[in-house]
C-alpha cells in the first residue's frame, strides 16, 4: 500500500515539475493524473494495491475539502465583491454542462440503438 501511495505522490510531483518547468496554466495534479492514467493504460490494468489506496482516498474525500473550505472562509470578502461574475460563471458552466451532456447522451443512445438494430438484422434508421 505504501508503494502505491508513493506512486500517486510521485505522479503528482512529476505533474507539478512539468507545470512549473513548462509554465503551463493548469494544476500540476491534473498533469499527474494524466501521467498515472497513461501508466495504467501502458500497464494494461489497475493493480489491486492501487485500487485499495484509491478507495481509501475516496472514502475520506470529504477531508480533502477542508483546505478549500478554509480558503473560501478566508476570502469571503473577495468572493462577495466578485459574486456577480462568479454566479454568472457557475450558471453558464452548469447550463453548458447540461447541454453537452444531453447532446452526448442523445448521440450515444442513437448509436447504441443502431448497433442493437444491426445485431437483430434491422437496417432502418429510427431518428
Automatic annotation (TrEMBL):
Gene Ontology cellular component terms for the protein in this record? plasma membrane
Main location, first listed in the record: membrane
Transmembrane helix keyword on record: yes
Its record classes its membrane topology as: Multi-pass membrane protein
Keywords carried by this UniProt record: Cell membrane, Membrane, Transmembrane, Transmembrane helix
The reply to whether Cell membrane figures as a keyword in the UniProt entry is: yes
Localization: Cell membrane
Q: Which InterPro entries match?
A: LrgA/CidA
Spell out the protein name for this chain.
Answer: CidA/LrgA family protein
Source taxon at top rank: Bacteria
Amino acid at each position: 500500500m505504501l508503494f502505491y501511495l508513493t506512486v500517486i505522490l510521485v505522479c503528482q510531483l512529476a505533474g507539478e515539475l512539468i507545470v512549473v518547468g513548462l509554465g503551463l496554466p493548469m494544476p500540476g495534479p491534473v498533469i499527474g493524473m494524466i501521467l498515472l492514467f497513461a501508466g495504467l493504460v501502458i500497464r494494461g490494468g489497475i493493480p489491486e494495491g492501487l485500487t485499495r489506496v484509491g478507495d481509501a482516498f475516496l472514502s475520506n474525500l470529504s477531508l480533502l475539502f477542508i483546505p478549500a473550505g478554509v480558503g473560501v472562509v478566508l476570502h469571503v470578502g473577495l468572493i462577495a465583491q466578485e459574486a456577480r461574475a462568479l454566479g454568472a460563471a457557475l450558471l453558464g458552466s452548469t447550463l453548458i454542462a447540461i447541454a453537452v451532456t444531453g447532446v452526448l447522451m442523445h448521440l450515444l443512445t442513437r448509436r447504441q440503438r443502431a448497433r442493437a438494430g444491426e445485431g437483430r438484422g434491422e437496417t432502418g434508421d429510427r431518428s
